[in-house]
Give the backbone structure.
Amino acid sequence: MLCDVCKKNPATVHLTEIIDEQMNELHLCEDCARHKSAAMEQQFGLSDLLAGMADFEKPAKDEENIAIKCPNCNLTYADFKKIGRLGCGECYNAFRKYLAPLLKRIHGSNQHVGKSPLKDKNIQKPGRKKADADDLKVGLQKAIQREDFEEAARLRDQIRAIEAKKEKEG
Amino acid sequence: MKINDLLNHTSEWLKGTGPNSDIVISSRIRLARNLNKYPFPHWASKIQLEEVLTKTSEAMAKIDMLKNSTLFRLADLDAIDKQFLVERHLMSIEHSQKTEHKALLVDDEEIIAVMINEEDHLRIQLMQSGFNLFEARDIINRLDDALAGILDYAFLDDFGYLTACPTNTGTGMRGSVMLHLPALVMSRQIERVLAAIAKLSFTTRGLYGEGTQASGNFFQISNQVSLGHGEDEIIENINGLIRQIIEQETQARQILLSKNKEVLEDRINRSLGILKSARIITSQETIELLSMVRLGNDLGMIKDIDRRTINELFIITQPAHLQKLENKKLSSDERDLKRAQLIRKKLNLL
């Protein structure tokens, strides 16, 4: 039997490949087999690891999760499993059910406790003076939008002062 | 600023100053940020990528902290320029490939670098010389807040900042410290140290980040986990870990000095001898020998060459830097000749 790839050397390595539930048999010579295995190793990157993790506790066939699609960017969960990258921020909502456990496996947690974008900085630590700071923040946003940076800087300092005080008060 | 202006400039992180700069080369923090609703770069259309590029670069142009910075569109740069920016640690290797719709913003001091449309819409990076994570955090925090005031970031209360790869979700923050650990390598303790680091969910990389080998005894250590811990907690954790590694390296250096002083002195001075007289030298050999010279300088065995010169040599002997200095394309053999020439000039003049 000759090698399936180069069709020159005798095939000494016999491989069974399963792609999309199709079974393929490959008969290769040593040289081609070496190339093939190098290529396979290269293909096995971070996305495969993630995809593997994503599958961890789900039954092998879960028609539902494969078909879910992000309404914002049209990436499907199957796409994510293939490429290991989400399509947009909205995907996190669309795939929440599957991503929450995945994030937990990667990070040991799926609850963010760090900072938030400036405009809703108070979400993490709601304090008694939240309303005041929030009002100032709305003002700050508006100031920035109309590119009044002097006013914005003044508001920013006020917000910082309030927040610093709040931190001290616990 | 033009790219060539960088050639005569020492990057902030190479200055060899800052706390513990004998062992710690630099401290770096990067934040991954994306715009709400826009698909991440790998999934976005050309039009969307262009919109992201416009929005983000316009926002950055409004920020006071960035007024002395320059935006480079990567598609306008030639291969040597791109490699040059990678060698200076201003952008990733990944960012230098498939450059359409990608840009890089660099400030004049080379402290701030922002990659646009890399894996995420924004990768904001802050570099400091020496062991200086807290200062890096303060500066990048201010920049991030200023940007968040203009741009609408993709963010969810429970998952935090949303990123293309779920490994960066949460704070989107990676803190890294570049360490020079020759004594731990020579005393064969490095494997044990690296294994411990991995167990604590930190990663070790080589000089040029993801996927690169450690060479010349340089190790870049960074946090792996970005969700479930606050920014300050993550920085404190890296800080604590690095402090311990510095201690271990310091001890290993002391032991080498007390037990094998002659051997160490011999190795260090031979390395300097080769650098001062070689006519042909590869960049790999250069890094290894410079690593020894740097150690010699730290230990007071080599006094007439300062740390900054040694640090600079690590970078200006890299392929793209050599070619920019010569202002022409050089083959690998030509580079090895020019590299040896440049090193001789820099070291023998001093």
In short: Chain A has a mean pLDDT of 74. The CA atoms of residues 3 and 9 of chain A lie 6 Å apart. DSSP finds eight helices and two strands in chain A. The longest strand of chain A covers residues 13-19.
